[in-house]
């Protein structure tokens, strides 16, 4: 394969980033921005950083033992998520600064969780890291409507960096990872949020049952409060409680793989 000077530089940057992040995360992938053609305008990488060329997505693993605890799964999952999110955010800041210093390009860290943007009552990530992870070749969406890494299933929490530095994309996975006859998550969901087609996943039904915070019933009681749901969630809602993870527990994609 012939590679020009520009190509050599972009290959060298990617190798350098992989070297820098090695040991800090359990998975990393690279998505060229031209793979985001279907993203809504307000959630497109270009809307976050003018001239964006690459989205780097990385993930940190939640120990599988957490979801198998007989008595304290929710407690352990709560602490695991809220320990990992700040770590991913800090890493995004360090990587962005490193990229800018090493390449002279621009970079911004994508929030691992909050702040989110609300469309009506529906929360959206500023950048959907699950969709970005799919575009970075880390995995694919399953029947449940969730993202599954090729090795770690749904046990990764994700972070990312958007940069004007150009890097080669990793190969896409494409296919849905679920075994043909598996319906374990559909049967396990207590509120029937998961259907037999991934596009039909009822996100709001799941969230209403799963995400709990002491402030929400008070702050969102009135019409006035509900109009401010974005501000309520992005300030007071950070340390939310996870009331349900039944679909995570039963999914064979979350079992250990070599
Ligand atoms: S987290 Fe609970 S409510 Fe949400 S989809 Fe999974 S099983 Fe259903
Ligand atoms: S439980 Fe089965 S159908 Fe549901 S996401 Fe996992 S593998 Fe797919």
Topology of this structure?
Blueprint: H1 5-21, E1 27-32, H2 45-48, E2 54-61, H3 64-68, H4 73-103, E3 107-110, E4 116-119, E5 122-125, H5 129-135, E6 139-141, E7 147-149, E8 156-163, H6 184-188, H7 203-210, E9 211-212, H8 215-219, H9 223-227, H10 229-236, E10 241-242, H11 246-250
Bound molecules: iron/sulfur cluster (SF4) (2 copies).
Please describe what this structure looks like:
The protein has helices spanning 5-21, 45-48, 64-68, 73-103, 129-135, 184-188, 203-210, 215-219, 223-227, 229-236, 246-250; strands at residues 27-32, 54-61, 107-110, 116-119, 122-125, 139-141, 147-149, 156-163, 211-212, 241-242. By secondary structure, it is of the alpha+beta class. It has a 4-stranded antiparallel beta sheet, with helices on both faces. It has a two-stranded antiparallel ribbon with strand order 4-5. The two termini are 32 Å apart. The relative contact order is 0.17. The model has no long low-confidence stretch (mean pLDDT 93). The protein binds iron/sulfur cluster (SF4) (2 copies). The site of one iron/sulfur cluster has 13 residues, from helix 6.
Properties at a glance:
258 residues; two-stranded antiparallel ribbon; globular; binds iron/sulfur cluster
| Helical stretch tally | 11
Main sheet attributes: strand count, strand direction, barrel closure: 4 strands, antiparallel
- Rg from Cα: 19 Å
Task: Kindly report the spatial arrangement of strands forming the biggest sheet.
Answer: 1-2-8-3
